Amino acid sequence: MLQARTMSDPKLRQAAEAVAIPVLAVAVSMVLFGAFVAAVGVDPIELYQLMYRGAFGTWFSWQNTLQRAAPLLLVALCTALPAQMGLVVIGAEGALVLGGLAAMAAGLPLADAGAPVLVVQLAMAAAGMAAGAVWIGIAGGLRHARGVSETISSLLMVYIAIAVLNHMVEGPMRDPASLNKPSTPVIGDGFMIGDMPGMDVHWGFVIGVVFCLAAWVLMFKTTFGFAARMVGGNVRAGRAAGLPVGGLIVAVTMIGGAAAGLAGMVEVAAVHGRANATLAAGYGFTGILVAFLARQNPLAIIPVAILMGGIGASGGLLQRRLDLPDATVLVLQGILFVVLLASETLYGRLRLPSLPRRRNAAPAAPAATGKA
């Protein structure tokens, strides 16, 4: 027999809402974006068909999508991990920029000295992660020590990081051969992160996936993650339990910053080959949207980052076929972010259908044993 199972179970309802509400937000955003492009004389159906082709329609499109998703996997963790503690960190762009700059500062001397490729790449990764960890850790430390909003401090520090990048590539680290576009010297093809076999996608995508899996294990399968989420749920209860609240805040923000710094290293070592102003491409801000759409779950970041990477990859096709600006996809991302924030009010209020569950049959009545 089947018995109706309502959504009164908190865990079941929370899981259902975590899927249903973001999907609903995406659907509403597509309708609003379709109305927007229709107002400027573009057929929404044709536009979405082209977006699908540009993102997932061909093998070339898939490779472009995965290439763009690689940094999003890492920068999204910079927002998602602190969010487990109730912190809203939006400074991943700054950590990415400084991570790429630090990676070049560490890798160039070793490459010039003839160090092995693996040593150079590991040194670049360590330097990038350290720079990102310190940068976002500062925001966490200010929150704990002085009560400064991590949202405001991390955002303002993005502009400081970009200014530091511009100063370094236009001054102490500038390659004299870079005339029109100041840049650091090229790291060299021999020290670049290569592509996966048979694909035009660099290994940075695999690194991002591995980090997302490791972050999920850290936050949901370890005592450290349990303590961090406990503090995020109730700071007073965490203090009463004797948890080092300040240390957890700084540690989690540093881990998130390290992921974003590694994204910067991957960009310079797998895509650009040098550090310059192109590092500030907006991946850090798109990562905020990825983290929110994934409900701060490191596992959910993987498909969401691929989706957002596909949206970004389709911009060029829209420009060529529909004569739309390449930044048109940014309008869709902006609409999606606004709708996603508005949908937060639905959690705990959304009516969800009952789910059937099997009920064990009632035990059979014992056979009569009375005497005639």
Shape: globular
Order of helices and strands: EHHHHHHHHHHHHHHE
Number of strands: 2
Structural class: mainly alpha
Strand order of the largest sheet: 1-2
Can you count the helices?
14
Spatial separation of the terminal alpha carbons: 36 Å
Main beta sheet strand tally, sense and closure = 2 strands, antiparallel
Given as residue ranges, the uncertain stretches (5+ residues, pLDDT < 50) are: 1-5, 368-372
Average the pLDDT over all residues and give the rounded result. 89
Beta-strand percentage? under 5%
Q: Which percent bin holds the helix content?
A: 55-70%
- CA radius of gyration is 24 Å
Question: Can you offer a commentary on this structure?
Answer:
- With 372 residues, the chain is mainly α.
- It has 14 helices and two strands, in the order E-H-H-H-H-H-H-H-H-H-H-H-H-H-H-E.
- It has helices at residues 10-39, 44-57, 59-83, 92-112, 117-146, 150-170, 204-220, 223-233, 235-240, 245-272, 283-293, 298-313, 315-322, 328-342; strands at 2-5, 355-358.
- Strands 1-2 form a two-stranded antiparallel ribbon.
